[in-house]
Amino acid sequence: FFLIIFKHIMAAITPFFVVLLLLVVQAPCLHAWKSVSVEDFGAIGDNKTVNTKAFRDALAAVTGGGEVVVPAGKVYQTGPVNLTSNVVLRVDGVMRAVENRSAFPKIAVLPSVGHDYDTNGPARRHPFVFAVGGDNITVMGKGTIDGAGYYWWSSESRKQDPGVGRPHLMELQSINNVEVTGVTLLNSPFWTFHPVYCQNVHIHHMEIQIPWGGFNGDGIDVDSCQNVLIEHNYINCGDDHVTILSGVGVAGQKFGMPSRNITVQDNKLGTGMGISIGSSVSGGIEDVLYTRNVMNETAGQWGMGVHVKTRTTYGGYIRNVRYINNTFLTAGSPGGALHIESGYQSGHGSCNYSECTEIRDIVFKDMQFLHTGGTGGLTCFPARPCQNITLDNIQVNVSGGWYCQNVASGTITDVTPTFNNTGNCNFTMN
Known about the structure:
Elements: H1 2-26, E1 34-37, E2 46-50, H2 52-61, E3 66-70, E4 75-78, E5 81-82, E6 87-91, E7 94-97, E8 106-107, E9 123-125, E10 129-140, E11 144-146, H3 150-153, H4 155-159, E12 164-165, E13 170-181, E14 184-186, E15 193-196, E16 199-204, E17 207-209, E18 220-223, E19 226-231, E20 234-236, E21 242-245, H5 249-255, E22 259-265, E23 268-269, E24 275-277, E25 285-291, E26 294-296, E27 306-310, E28 317-324, E29 327-330, E30 338-342, E31 358-371, E32 376-379, E33 387-396, E34 403-405, E35 407-416, E36 425-429
Parallel strand pairs: 1-3, 2-4, 3-6, 4-7, 5-10, 6-10, 7-11, 9-12, 10-13, 11-14, 13-15, 13-16, 14-17, 15-18, 16-19, 17-20, 18-21, 19-22, 20-23, 21-24, 22-25, 23-26, 24-27, 25-28, 26-29, 27-30, 28-31, 29-31, 30-32, 31-33, 32-34, 33-35, 35-36
Antiparallel strand pairs: 8-9
């Protein structure tokens, strides 16, 4: 009798406990999504009021999930800000960095680098838009994030901060699921957008603008990231349009996080130094595709179309990289159209086999260079020659020849001007 009663009681209360358990398990997902404006927290868009507190308070209000809006039609000055998981920063107006060095605190250098990228010193300045660790961060809108880079670019400004790197406009570090779309990133003090240690990154339909005088003003530097798609952007900058990195020297090798599975497609490129790999590749780079990009830099400025580069003793590897069906209306004047450059900015000195970067399985196919300062060439390490390099239907509209050093194997098909085996290069001519 008592067993029968117990069974009826358990049958009655079990659904209650199941519902309670589901509520407990799902509690983190029940956070109410908020959309707030920085003006809700006192921001004034008059291009002179410093709104750092209002921006930070707005971001704190959406901790756990929500949207912070920078309203259209106004300019809001602010110091640097930090984003957290499940947050959308929607910039429809102008979010402009304050011109105040002390507003950008010194922070630690990256463990995969071991020093600052800018100065090789022991510290760097806090990025304008920053995030460290988390998931699902989006930066979007129809407005502009202005880094006020001219405050930082001059040699006089850099001398005020010896050994401390200038801030990136935006750095997202160790984030899973990143989207950046719609916004214009303007006048970065140093590199514009630096995703590092991230996975599942989509950068699309946005714009980067830095004048040629923006010292080391790269567009997008993908650093030790996996699963990245960069498409339908316009990039006009002061250095590499897009480059793929993975740490520096011993620090990068020990950290051991390669950049992998990256596609850069359908972008329009203005002035700048081309679509690149390296030079910091110590953690390894593989499975990269550059395709259907169109470059038209301003003639007479230093630039390159394609630049695969590494430094002496950096180690690591560059492999399975494909440049296919890219068009260069004006590129490489006077820098040259297409380069593999071992020993970049390191004297082209010697390295032993283990110190030299492995470069193999690189394809250049179906590319035109209509106006350029020269062809370019392939320079690989004597102690570790490049292997399996393919040039197929490469047309460079310039007189003169190519240079080549230390390519162990590869194929040449329909290349203009004619490519000849010289300098210890061993191509099969089809």
